[in-house]
């Protein structure tokens, strides 16, 4: 699953300085680069290679800012075909969505959690879900996001966050929870850490590989889930 930040802080997509600028020369922007680099690795763990893809913080020209809209512009069904489908839906959305705000993660995390939870509702414990969030901004709903992550920590779900641009990503480091599990507003402690955050500027500096940095914790998060549920590895799929 992929969620792309359409808040106005990204800059006008028609401006070459925008983080959403589509370069006619074919040079990829940070969003495109992340989708391809991570998607080309993750897709091989998905049997049908159909991915739910959303945008958040934008106005899909219907007069209402949405914090979880289908990237493909379809009213019913958010799935697209493969990494190429994500890239095409993203490029199309830039022509059909007005950038707005604020930056809220809660709705897309809750949507991903709902999908992950549905598999358990149907007694299907053979799937594990991964949500990739690409963002440039500072969260407006930090506590709501922490609450959503704590609720989702019982589900077969991991969340990879890539920060693009030069914003202060201190909040993302908090969500990453490397220094202790998240605590909700009601005092509930997360069952496990389900978030990995990487700022793309560290990748561009050559200090780290985007894919390596994003996926280095994923196997541990996955194993912590299956071990807690005593789930045998036979016939397990990543979705």
From TrEMBL:
Pfam family, any one: Copine
One GO term of the biological process aspect: cellular response to calcium ion
Family annotation (PROSITE patterns): VWFA
Domain (VWFA) ranges: 1-218
SUPFAM superfamilies with a match to the protein in the record: vWA-like
GO-annotated molecular function: calcium-dependent phospholipid binding
Cellular component terms per the entry's GO annotation: plasma membrane
Superkingdom per UniProt: Eukaryota
Name of this chain's protein: VWFA domain-containing protein
Organism from which the protein derives: Acer saccharum (Sugar maple)
């Amino acid at each position: 699953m992929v969620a792309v930040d359409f808040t106005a802080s990204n800059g006008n997509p028609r401006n070459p300085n925008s983080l959403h600028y589509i370069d006619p020369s074919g040079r990829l922007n940070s969003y495109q680069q992340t989708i391809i680099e991570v998607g080309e690795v993750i897709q091989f763990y998905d049997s049908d290679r159909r991915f739910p893809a959303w945008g958040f913080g934008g106005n899909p020209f219907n007069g209402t800012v949405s914090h979880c809209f289908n990237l493909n512009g379809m009213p019913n069904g958010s799935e697209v075909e493969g990494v190429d489908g994500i890239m095409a839906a993203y490029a199309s959305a830039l022509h059909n969505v007005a950038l707005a705000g604020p930056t809220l993660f809660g709705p897309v995390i809750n949507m991903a959690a709902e999908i992950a939870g549905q598999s358990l509702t149907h007694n299907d414990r053979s799937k594990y879900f991964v949500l990739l969030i690409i963002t440039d901004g500072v969260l407006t709903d930090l506590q709501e996001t922490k609450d959503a992550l704590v609720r989702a920590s019982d589900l077969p779900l991991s969340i990879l966050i890539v920060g693009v641009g030069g914003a202060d990503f201190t909040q993302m480091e908090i969500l990453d929870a490397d220094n202790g599990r998240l605590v909700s507003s009601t005092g509930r402690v997360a069952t496990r850490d389900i978030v990995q955050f990487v700022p793309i500027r560290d990748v561009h500096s050559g200090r780290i590989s985007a894919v390596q940095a994003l996926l280095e914790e994923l196997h541990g998060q996955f194993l912590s889930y299956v071990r807690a549920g005593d789930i045998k590895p036979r016939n397990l799929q990543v979705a």
